[in-house]
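Why do we care about 3D structure at all? Because function follows from shape, and shape follows, mostly, from sequence. That is the central idea of this module. The next example makes it concrete: a single protein chain, its amino acid sequence, and then its structure expressed as tokens.
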Amino acid sequence: MIEQLPALLVVAPILAATVSLVAGLRWRRAGWAVTTLTLAGLFAMALWLTAEVYLGGERVIHQLGGFPRPVGIELIADRLSTLISIVVTGIALGVLGYTRLGGPRGNGFYTMYLLLVGGLLGVTFTGDVFNLFVFLEITGLTTYAIVAKGESGESAIAALRYLVIGTVGASLYLIGVGYLFMATGTLNMIDLSAALAEVGYDDTLVRVGFVFVFVGFAIKVALFPLHSWQPDAYQRAPDGATPLVSALVSTASAYALFRVIYTVFTVEFLRATPYVNEVIVTIGSVSVLAGTTLAVLQTDVKRMLAYSSVSQFGLIVLAYGLATQTALVGSLVHLLGHGLMKGGLFLAVGVIAAGTGARTVDEYAGLAQRRPFAAGALAVLGLALVGVPPSVGFVGKWFIAVGAVEAGVWPVAAVVFLSTMLTLAYVARLLEKMYFTPPETRTRAYTPENPLAADGGSDDPVSKGMLAVTLLATVLVVALGFAGGTFDSLLGPFVEGILNG
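And the structure:
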């Protein structure tokens, strides 16, 4: 039974998407119920699979149709992919606590929601580079549709821009896969890794293939200057959809980039190819500094957090280029933690917008008086994004900085420190507005005659579920800050195996 779980995790949400659509013909709100039940089951299966992998063995492999590689397609659950599956299913389940009242509503939305989860889990478990492209496209197409669900025409424009740029990224990745297939004749990741070593890492097709794959993923991950789709998409997507998109879509692409670099090309390719590590570190560092600088300049809170994602994923990618055990563990911890932090931040922003109408930094003035719980969650999550201990944001940044020092790449440690200061600058602006500035009259400020703007007030547009899931994300971000040693023990052996072959 355990060998079937990776396939069930991928197939179940795709089949449930059909159930949601059909049930919607009879019951108006069937989509939310079907999605909730499905994701609860998926989350339980992800926990079960993770326990089996960590307690019973290193990997669980499912061969689709019973056909072995290289003919068949494999789904592989290992120490990393199972943790990613918990993040995907857990965050997707949690966001439903917001959408129940906060929206978007409609069975069509929940059908796309389930298809997106299926695509993300496919990206997580696939062991085939072409199959990875297929799941990336499922993820991309459903994300475009979800972004377009916003109420304004600007949402459709942002979705169209995302579609065009995302298609370019996917096409570049596919061209790279084509070059690799020409060089080796296989698409399975494990076989491809062995074949690349036989062909030689200095082969022109191999190196060109790597360039196309990396640039394609740079677009998907939103590294500077290929990030232009992300701020509009995050800002214009519905408030209930942004936490899901921001927490998981680029996270899945960054995870896939790690898989391709270290499972397909391997660390031997990085060692054998001149300057490739330096290029990856440089691109990541530029994205870190540019993203944080642009975030400081923003006045719209959602757009500010979107640019912060450009910075955070740059930090993860530069750690890929360092290629040390400590840095790679840090990159994976930050990858997992960023999904939780950014999902929680956008949930808090959505709660605040629903309760007060505030969307800009200036409109957050006096928010702590009107929405103490939402403001507190936003403050804690923002400080976690800075890297203040104890938080999972601190753990990831600490490992990456230490890994840079171990590798002798001191400028990277300086980049981490500088980006932390810039992140503190825009988070401090929010804190100053929320806690130390009188309320603006342009928002629905709390008054005795207007109790709607207070947490838990009568007829409050913010439900207990919306607030509860935001606070849960906040608690988890802090709690995981105490798990640095646990992360090292869980992911350290996995990363060591990758680096040592």
